[in-house]
TrEMBL record:
A single MF term (Gene Ontology): transaminase activity
GO biological process assignments: polysaccharide biosynthetic process
Official protein name in the record: Nucleotide-sugar aminotransferase
Keyword Transferase: yes
Amino acid sequence: MKFIDLNEQYLKIKQAVDGRMQAVLDHGQFIMGPEVKELEARLAEWVGVRHCITVSSGTMALLIALMALGVGPGDEVITSSFSFFATAETIVFLGATPVFVDIDPKTYNIDVSRIEAAITNRTKAIVPVSLYGQCADLVAINAIAERHGLPVIEDGAQSLGATHHGRQSCGFTTIGCTSFFPSKPLGCYGDGGACFTNDNELAQTMRLIRNHGQEKRYHHVRVGLNARFNTLQAAVLLAKLELFADELEQRQRVAEWYSEILGADFVTPYIAPNNMSAFAQYTLRVEQRERVQVALTEAGIPTAVHYPKSLHEQPAIQAYLKTDDHYPQAQAASQQVLSLPFHPYLTKETVRNVCDELLSIVSCKSVNG
């Protein structure tokens, strides 16, 4: 059994993927070729914004968004205490200080009620994370940001395809960022990412940063990065876009199967009102996680932990912490969350087998001690 079965997806779209990639091999424009522009137009339409700027990874998307907003030394950026490392890493990379806010224990997203208390005269931006495929409470976060004159960057690395109050993830905030890492709901066959915005000036700035600050060939108007997008990866995503809506529906279905079987015994994913999750993962909470994980591995069932440390616990971040505050909800989640095999092509029978094995393990005295 595979945790995520990308090969099964490929077999369903093999002809389209192969054809798209062959077209790139034929024209030879491997960086920022015509497929990149086509993809950007398609994604901007999907998200419902004016501009999509594709980049070389989700990490680069966050970094470029922060750079475009002028984040630098002495600034503070408010973000969630529970996320992948890149959320904090990009803030620190620019010399700014990440100011963490604890999470809502039900959604694992930033606790909106705690954001305002974290704002100071040094706050430059708010970066909510839409974790596990579910949007943070972006309506409430935007309202707080507006009161304080702050921009918002949605870290939507896991949530492209999700909706919040009927609108698409990455289309709600000043800038939305996503990732096309292969395991994401819309993933390519390598690294990739994108920034989304309705702001024409920010879009132009992000395009400049993406390509060494180059306004025209060998004329550089600002310091930038090499974060251009690979045309072959754009070709893959164009083929996958044809399946994306159907796969999102299938993700809902697989998640429902899991929750129907496990809901009485576990804390299963909670989807907040007015949200539809893209279900990047199916993550629940378990006691004695390591013992359960080992037993599942022995039974041939792969699992993952997203994430075993909250961000303020990461050694590389310690020197940059503003305070020695504790984030109990993030810490509790990091000790209990467990992601089960999940992709759109899981069968109900396979889901049932995974659940039966898990239920058997947790009811066994050898695990419960």
